[in-house]
C-alpha cells in the first residue's frame, strides 16, 4: 500500500510538471514564428507586443507546475498558491545579477529543481495543512518561503546535472559527422521527454557554427514528436496527438517513465532520421536545435541556412513519421514489448 502511495505521488509530480510545462510553452511555441513573420510585413508594434506576451507566458511555468500539482493533490486554493510561489522562487527563473544590480530572468528555470522542490513543497504542505488554524494565511506562505530557500541551495546542484548532460552530448559533436548526427538526434529525442530543456541544451551546445549538428538535434526532437503523435493517435487520443505536433511533447513524460520500452521506438526513429538529416544536409543553429517541428521553427531555419526544399520535406515530414509508424508497429505489434494503451494520457 505504501509503495502504491509513493508511486501515485511521483506520478502526480510527473503529470503536474508535464502539464505545467505544456501550458506555459504552447503559446510561444505555436505563435511566435507566425507573429514575427506577420510583424515583419505589417503592424509591427502590434505583433511585437503579441510576441513579447507569448514569450513572457513561459515564465509562468514554475507557478503552473506548483498549482497544478496542488490541484491534483486536492489542496485548498491557498495551499496550491503557496506551492506555486514556492516552486517559482526556487526554480532559478529569476536570479540577481550583482554586476547589473538587477533581477534577470530566463523562462522556466531549471526543471530538475522545479520537480524536486514541487515534490518537497507538496509533502511539507500536506504535513502542516490544517494545523495553523486562523494563522494559515500568515504561516503557510512563510513555510513556502523556507522551502524555497532550501530550493535555492539545491539549485546549483540541479544545474550541474543539466551541465553534466550537456558535457556528454558535447562529446558527440567531436565525432565523425555521420555518427555525430545519429547520436545527437538520439540524445535530443530522449531529452525532450525528460525534465531537460532541449531549448537550453541547444543554446549551450550550438552557439558555434555546427549547423549540421544543430540540424540533427532538431530532427531528434521531431522524432519523439512523430512517435508520440502516432502512438497517441492509435490510442484514440487524437486531441493529444495534435497537441504533441504543436509542441506538447513533454506531456508524455509520465508515459515514458512508466513504459521505458517506448524509448526503443523513439531512439530507433531518431537514429534513422538523424542519419537522413546528414545525408540530406539538414542544417540548424542554436535557435532551432531544441524545437523540432514546433512552430515550424526547424524547417524555417533549415531553409534559411541553405537546406533544399526537397530535403526539408523528406527529413521533417516524410521520413520521421514513416519510420515512427513502422518502428511502433514492430515494437508493439510484432515484438509485443508494449501495448497501445502505453500512449494513453491521464493528465488531461
Automatic annotation (TrEMBL):
Going by the UniProt record, its keywords in alphabetical order are: Cell membrane, Membrane, Sugar transport, Transmembrane, Transmembrane helix, Transport
Q: Which GO terms describe its molecular function?
A: protein-N(PI)-phosphohistidine-sugar phosphotransferase activity
Q: How does the record classify its membrane topology?
A: Multi-pass membrane protein
Please give the GO cellular component terms listed in this UniProt entry: plasma membrane
Q: Does the keyword Nucleus apply?
A: no
Please provide the Gene Ontology terms (biological process) for this protein. Answer: phosphoenolpyruvate-dependent sugar phosphotransferase system
Q: What is its main location?
A: membrane
TM helices/strands, residue ranges:
12-35, 55-73, 80-99, 111-128, 135-157, 177-204, 211-233, 262-280, 309-327
Alphabetized Pfam families for the sequence = PTS_EIIC_2
Domain of life, per lineage: Bacteria
- The residue ranges of the Phosphotransferase system EIIC domain are 13-344
Tell me the first and last residues of the signal peptide.
none
Compartments annotated for it: namely: Cell membrane
Return the protein name: Phosphotransferase system EIIC domain-containing protein
Amino acid at each position: 500500500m505504501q509503495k502504491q502511495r509513493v508511486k501515485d505521488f511521483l506520478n502526480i509530480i510527473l503529470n503536474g510538471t508535464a502539464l505545467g510545462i505544456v501550458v506555459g510553452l504552447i503559446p510561444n511555441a505555436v505563435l511566435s514564428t507566425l507573429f514575427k513573420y506577420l510583424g515583419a510585413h505589417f503592424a509591427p508594434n502590434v505583433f511585437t507586443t503579441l510576441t513579447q506576451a507569448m514569450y513572457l507566458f513561459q515564465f509562468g511555468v514554475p507557478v503552473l507546475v506548483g498549482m497544478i500539482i496542488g490541484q491534483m493533490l486536492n489542496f485548498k486554493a491557498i495551499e496550491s498558491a503557496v506551492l506555486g510561489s514556492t516552486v517559482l522562487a526556487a526554480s532559478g527563473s529569476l536570479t540577481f545579477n550583482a554586476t547589473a544590480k538587477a533581477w534577470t530572468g530566463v523562462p522556466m528555470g531549471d526543471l530538475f529543481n522545479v520537480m524536486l522542490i514541487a515534490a518537497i513543497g507538496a509533502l511539507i504542505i500536506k504535513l502542516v495543512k490544517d494545523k495553523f488554524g486562523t494563522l494559515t494565511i500568515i504561516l503557510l506562505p512563510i513555510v513556502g518561503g523556507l522551502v524555497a530557500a532550501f530550493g535555492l541551495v539545491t539549485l546549483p546542484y540541479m544545474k550541474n546535472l543539466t551541465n553534466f548532460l550537456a558535457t556528454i552530448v558535447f562529446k558527440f559533436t567531436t565525432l565523425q559527422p555521420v555518427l555525430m548526427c545519429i547520436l545527437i538526434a538520439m540524445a535530443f529525442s530522449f531529452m525532450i521527454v525528460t525534465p531537460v530543456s532541449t531549448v537550453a541544451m541547444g543554446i549551450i551546445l550550438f552557439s558555434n557554427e555546427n549547423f549540421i549538428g544543430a540540424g540533427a538535434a532538431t530532427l531528434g526532437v521531431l522524432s519523439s514528436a512523430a512517435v508520440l503523435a502516432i502512438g497517441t493517435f492509435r490510442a484514440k487520443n487524437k486531441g493529444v496527438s495534435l497537441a504533441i505536433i504543436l509542441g506538447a511533447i513533454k506531456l508524455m513524460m509520465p508515459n515514458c517513465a512508466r513504459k521505458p520500452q517506448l524509448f526503443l521506438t523513439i531512439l530507433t526513429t531518431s537514429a534513422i532520421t538523424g542519419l537522413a538529416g546528414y545525408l540530406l544536409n539538414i542544417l540548424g543553429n542554436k535557435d532551432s536545435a531544441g524545437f523540432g517541428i514546433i512552430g515550424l521553427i526547424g524547417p524555417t531555419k533549415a531553409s534559411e541556412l541553405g537546406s533544399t526544399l526537397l530535403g526539408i520535406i523528406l527529413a521533417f515530414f516524410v521520413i520521421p513519421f514513416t519510420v515512427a509508424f513502422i518502428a511502433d508497429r514492430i515494437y508493439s505489434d510484432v515484438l509485443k514489448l508494449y501495448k497501445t494503451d502505453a500512449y494513453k494520457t491521464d493528465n488531461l
